[in-house]
Amino acid sequence: MSLALTLARRGLGNVWPNPAVGCVIVNAGRIVGRGWTQPGGRPHAEVRALAQAGAAARGATAYVTLEPCAHYGKTPPCSLALIEAGVKRVVSAMEDPDPRVSGGGHSRLREAGIAVETGVMEAEARELQAGFLSRITRNRPWLALKLASSFDGRIALASGESQWITGPQARARVHAMRAEFDAVMVGGGTARADDPLLTVRNFTPLRQPVRVVVSESLDLPRDRLAGSLQTAPLWLMHGVSAPGEAVAYWRDLGAELIELPSLAEGGLDPFALMEALGGLGLTRIFCEGGGQFAATLAKAGLVDELIGFTAGVLIGADGRAGIGAMGQENLADAPRFELVETTPIGGDVLHRWRRQTQA
């Protein structure tokens, strides 16, 4: 199962809206087939592993990181493929909460006389499937907020200069992380300040993440973002008041335009934003700010994970804060996260935190 989970990880960022699944088939103590969900979500992991195993799948045990599907979609169900291949035992890490499956795959296997064991390395599987599980059970993607900051929590000088607070190794790791997410998202303020490409660079990913820019009025620079539509998809989330000229300009370029409701106090509704992105199939989002946009998401309780790259440099109170004002009056109400990883990256430190309580 550990190998199956490692294989499944290869699908992160490449298979949405499907889950990233791994499968290993073992017969007489020998691995005869292995597979993982392919880019775009097809073929499924089990189908890939069975194709590699061939006749050796008969009488074998299949280790799968998620319950084999039981419904007919673009392809027949994987549970049926396992039955037809003559597998005698299936070990799965967890049940699939998708209503189209939800125990149906395991039941189909048992009805065919196949021994089924579940819950093996379930905690590890749930961590891997956090994005898929979030979309299915909470109707929104898993949201990781990334900050690259000075030791004193600043993301830029007062002038806006920020290149580069962290070193080249940390920046390379950020690109590797982007490749494991379905989308990279920023607020309009960051887009106006940096006109970022938001693509994976330094290596060629199997699938570039969707670039999501959230700007109520669509007042965005028309340089690098506008000139890179052939490189990666661009989704622009905007308000009803966005000028028609701006909407037409971006739509004609090939960007996807999604209109969202605005809050009475201004700004787009963060809950509507996340629900819309989940409805479009995204499971994992890598948010790179900026400060006020990050504060809005954090205050709404929508940040599931913090990913920090901290440099040993001091900028001071006149620098720009990593998180904008949240208007909190009681420390007890502040969002809290649990440390799950600390790793030196070149001359910087990577630290990851998970939200203590999930919705």
Account of the protein in words:
With 359 residues, the chain is an alpha/beta fold. The protein folds into two domains: 1-128, Cytidine Deaminase, domain 2, CATH 3.40.140.10; 139-355, Dihydrofolate Reductase, subunit A, CATH 3.40.430. The radius of gyration is 22 Å and the shape is globular. The relative contact order is 0.13. It is built from eleven helices and 16 strands. The chain has helices spanning 2-9, 45-53, 78-85, 104-111, 122-128, 130-138, 168-178, 188-194, 244-253, 270-279, 291-299, and strands spanning 22-27, 30-36, 61-64, 89-92, 115-118, 142-149, 154-156, 183-187, 210-214, 234-239, 256-260, 284-287, 305-310, 320-321, 337-345, 348-355.
Which properties best describe this structure?
EC 3.5.4.26, NADP, Cytidine Deaminase, domain 2, single chain, Riboflavin biosynthesis protein RibD, Dihydrofolate Reductase, subunit A, 359 residues, alpha/beta, 11 helices, zinc, NADP binding, globular
Estimated radius of gyration: 22 Å
Mean pLDDT: 92
Do you know the CATH topology of the largest domain?
A: Dihydrofolate Reductase, subunit A
Secondary-structure element order, N to C: HEEHEHEHEHHEEHEHEEHEHEHEEEE
Segments where pLDDT lies below 50 for 5+ residues?
none
Query: What is the overall shape?
Result: globular
Q: At the first level of CATH, what is the class of the largest domain?
A: Alpha Beta
Residues in helix, %: 25-40%
The percent range for strand residues is 15-25%
Pfam family, one: RibD_C
Catalytic activity: 2,5-diamino-6-hydroxy-4-(5-phosphoribosylamino)-pyrimidine + H2O + H(+) = 5-amino-6-(5-phospho-D-ribosylamino)uracil + NH4(+); 5-amino-6-(5-phospho-D-ribitylamino)uracil + NADP(+) = 5-amino-6-(5-phospho-D-ribosylamino)uracil + NADPH + H(+)
Function: Converts 2,5-diamino-6-(ribosylamino)-4(3h)-pyrimidinone 5'-phosphate into 5-amino-6-(ribosylamino)-2,4(1h,3h)-pyrimidinedione 5'-phosphate.
Family: In the C-terminal section; belongs to the HTP reductase family. In the N-terminal section; belongs to the cytidine and deoxycytidylate deaminase family.
